[in-house]
Design brief:
The chain is an alpha/beta fold. It has a 5-stranded mixed beta sheet with strand order 5-4-3-7-8. The longest helix is centred in the first third of the chain and has 11 residues.
Amino acid sequence: MTRTALTLTLAALFAAPAALAASIGEAAPAFTLADSHGKSHSLADYHGKTVILEWTNHECPFVKKHYGAGNMQAQQRAAVADGIVWLTINSSNVGQQGHVDADFANKLFAESYQAANTAYLFDTDGVVGRAYGAKTTPQMYIIDADGVLRYNGAIDSIPSADQADIADATQHVSVALAELAAGKPVGVPLTQPYGCSVKY
């Protein structure tokens, strides 16, 4: 691999968050998106609840890492059991890697992954992804009950596609949720997301 190719690859995998319409500690960008069952979801619908946004692309090896090991589903189940809303968002454009239709998304998440997310949302035009500065899959955001952005970044602390690394990693999302539940500020509110570039 040439030095230029290596640089471009690393830039995609460890892309820094772009300027956000909302920064940590500020109101999260409002949005309305349809889910894989045709139901509309607005961020405003969930005022008073903590909301997690998870950017996804089922073809990305970093997404496969966390779903293949059951890590993403375990965190979804724990969060939803605590009354947290977990919205999975696909911003892959038509013809791009990771773009799926509703039937495929439902089968993938319900049957293959046995996911416990609240809803799978389509952001095909990329408007919401760009508003949040989403650069990688997976990339995670936590919005508190007042609609304020409290976390943006990686799901965990080891940027690899190896499932074996999950056990040794700090699970950033779980830690941040525990801090919020205890009435504490998020200790590490911004981390470097890793994964595949969002296919806008």
